[in-house]
Amino acid sequence: MKKNSGYTIVELLAVVTILVAVTGIVSALITQTLRGSSRTNITNQVSQAGNYVSSAITNSIIVAENVVAVGGDDIIDCTQKPTGNSIELFVSQKGGSITYSCSGDTISSNSASLIDTNRLRVDSSDSSACYFTCRQQSNDPYTPPVIEFGFTLTQKSETALFDKRASAPFNTSALMRNYKK
């Protein structure tokens, strides 16, 4: 009698097929996980930048004493709810006025950009993508105005891959606590 100590070709093909299938599944899971991680990092960057801009503008609104202009037009009060892509606030604590504006691909404070324009941009696809609105009760110009503002930040990316792009809208409002008519 002869001993068979080897494997048949069918057994080897079955093992190779199973290994190829397992390798394909594992590599797909790893790729998906890495893409998800990359997408999360990009989304966090956009979110942090937007929260910083919102916080900076909100802090200025809270300490402002008056609204000087909205959209480049001088105003007396906010009973007519003026809206525009810029707002000028008078803040005596900081030594004068501060102008926030949406121009091109950025939001600026007295012409200094509040975002890293190498990585992010303000969505300027339409005029309502970045705005400032001042409102007060229509019958009482002595009530403190509420300033609403909003913008959409988008990750600058050279690639068309979905996991390399992120965009987030930011909308908020703040009450002028130091308002002086």
Structure notes:
With 181 residues, the protein is an alpha+beta fold. It has one domain. Helices cover 30% and strands 31% of the residues. It has one helix at residues 9-63; strands spanning 66-70, 73-74, 83-84, 86-91, 96-103, 106-109, 112-113, 120-122, 130-135, 146-155, 167-175. The strands form two sheets. The protein has a six-stranded antiparallel β-sheet, with helices on one face. Strands 3, 8, 9, 10 and 11 form a five-stranded antiparallel β-sheet that branches. A hairpin with a 4-residue loop joins strand 4 (86-91) and strand 5. The longest helix is centred in the N-terminal third of the chain and has 55 residues, at 9-63. It is rod-shaped and about 110 Å long. The N and C termini lie far apart (111 Å).
Topology:
Layout: H1 9-63, E1 66-70, E2 73-74, E3 83-84, E4 86-91, E5 96-103, E6 106-109, E7 112-113, E8 120-122, E9 130-135, E10 146-155, E11 167-175
Secondary structure: helix percent: 25-40%
The rounded distance between the terminal residues' Cα atoms is 111 Å
Contiguous runs where pLDDT drops below 50 for at least 5 residues: none
* Assembly of the depicted chains: single chain
Q: What is the strand tally? A: 11
What is the 3D form? rod-shaped
Radius of gyration: 28 Å
How many domains in all? 1
Question: How many strands, which pairing sense, and closed or not: the largest β-sheet?
Answer: 6 strands, antiparallel
Helix and strand composition category: alpha+beta
Task: Compute the average pLDDT.
Answer: 85
Number of helices: 1
DSSP strand content: 25-35%
